[in-house]
Amino acid sequence: MNRQVVFRVDASVEMGLGHLTRCLTLADALAAAGARSCFLMRGHAAGLAHLVESRGHQVRLLPDPPVRLAGTDDSGGPYAHWLPTNWQQDAAQTRSALDEIGAVEWLIVDHYALDARWEHACRRGGMRILAIDDLADRDHDCEILLDQNLVRGMETRYRGRVPAACAQLLGPGYALLRPDFAALRALLAPRSGEINRILICFGGSDPSNETAKALEAIASLAMARLAADVAIGATNPHAASVDALCQRMANVTLHRGANNIAELMRRADLSIGAGGVMSWERCCLGLPTLAIGIAENQADVLTALAAAGAIMHIGAAASVTDGVIAQALHSLLCNPGQVRLMSETALALVDGGGAERVRRAVFC
């Protein structure tokens, strides 16, 4: 029996690729249960359609208006600008796409600019809705709410924001990670805490070029034993300058659009990176992390991970210099016991089975 699932998600330099990445992971897991997935994305994400299609899923692009449409009511919200139109037109275009697709069992939405109003407007008989969120800053009209993050007050943060009958899947036990993370976790040797190889990765876009700061920090330490892998996304706007910086440094390898990030994490001793989906990937492989927040919505999760002892959080990108990174890195290089404990704590948070748990909740 073929089950039709539709994802409404976007990606861009500002949004990053995290929302799309985790939706692709869930679509792959649902495909194993016989589901067919179609991704509805705005026209500005057309350049990323190949990522979806290469995994065997369909893509339909919602046409962007030539001029951004304002909301017909108080649509508000700090992420409203992530849509090139208002939520009402987005809902109307989504409904049209759903009509063309036919019978849809689940509509899965992962978008900070969409909320309960959009979800209610898209409802149709026989279709259920799963909302993926991180912020708990708006209401949802859904049967399942998924928030894979570790934050203070996790169990109560959606109280009053979802229907009483909504099933809430909360915490990093539901982190949507590709199967290769769990596979490599099973082969992982205990980490000693010694740092010889560093992975620098700030996600798919890194608009403020934190990658360059991390490279400058490593260079300033002038430690011949340190090697580094630098992973940047295909949409990174600073690719040329990062490449030039890597070429000037010894023992540094640049990986652009890498599809082996799990392997790069496995062989690294420390990561310098941001929050988002990669937080849970690193935890799954017990990779200690020097973390820098590159978006306001990452702050609560990074704070919670630091409080748990899984990472060292050194602040938001705007206030972190290469000197701050160098100082924090030097302290970890001198304290392998702390690094080892970070690894053990991270491993205990995420086991790599989250996508399968969500699949069972969807197709129970």
Written account of the structure:
The protein has 364 residues and is of the alpha/beta class. It folds into two domains: 3-170, Rossmann fold; 180-349, 3-Layer(aba) Sandwich (Rossmann fold). The protein contains 13 helices and 13 strands. The protein has helices at residues 18-31, 49-53, 87-101, 116-122, 179-186, 210-221, 239-247, 261-267, 277-284, 299-308, 322-333, 336-349, 354-362, and strands at 3-9, 35-42, 58-62, 106-110, 128-132, 144-147, 167-170, 197-201, 227-232, 252-256, 270-273, 289-293, 311-316. It has a seven-stranded parallel beta sheet with strand order 3-2-1-4-5-6-7, sandwiched between helices. Strands 10-9-8-11-12-13 form a six-stranded parallel beta sheet, with helices on both faces. Strand 1 (3-9), helix 1 (18-31) and strand 2 (35-42) form a beta-alpha-beta unit. The two termini are 15 Å apart.
Question: What distinguishing features does this structure have?
Answer:
single chain; 364 residues; alpha/beta; Rossmann fold; 2 domains; seven-stranded parallel sheet; six-stranded parallel sheet; 13 helices; 36% helix; 19% strand; PseG; UDP-2,4-diacetamido-2,4, 6-trideoxy-beta-L-altropyranose hydrolase; hydrolase
Span of the ends, CA to CA: 15 Å
Q: What amount of the residues lies in strands?
A: 15-25%
Q: Mind telling me the CATH superfamily name of the largest domain?
A: Glycogen Phosphorylase B
Helix content: 25-40%
Distinct helical segment count: 13
Radius of gyration: 21 Å
What is the approximate shape? globular
Count of distinct structural domains? 2
Low-confidence stretches: none
